[in-house]
Write a structure and sequence with these properties.
Shape: elongated
Number of domains: 1
Number of helices: 3
Helix content: 25-40%
Radius of gyration: 13 Å
Oligomer: single chain
Largest sheet: none
Number of strands: 0
Distance between the termini: 17 Å
Strand content: under 5%
């Protein structure tokens, strides 16, 4: 996770996992670093979907 995807988000207001998957990019990726909660939530949604596809419990904390 390089935090260069430019997902729009506000610090202190993390989106839900599923919401993070619908956030548009604010600028082309990999041009500069931008920190916020959305990339981490998107990572969580990605893992949740992979767990669901493998028919595992979708709870990320239990998985970790």
């Amino acid at each position: 996770m390089s935090l260069t995807a430019k997902l729009q988000s506000k610090i202190g207001i993390p989106p839900e996992y599923y919401e993070a998957a619908t956030i548009p990019l604010s600028k082309p990726a990999r041009l500069s670093f931008s920190c916020g909660p959305a990339p981490f939530q998107l990572f969580g949604e990605n893992i949740r979907r992979k767990l669901a596809a493998a028919e595992h419990d979708e709870n990320l904390l239990l998985y970790l």
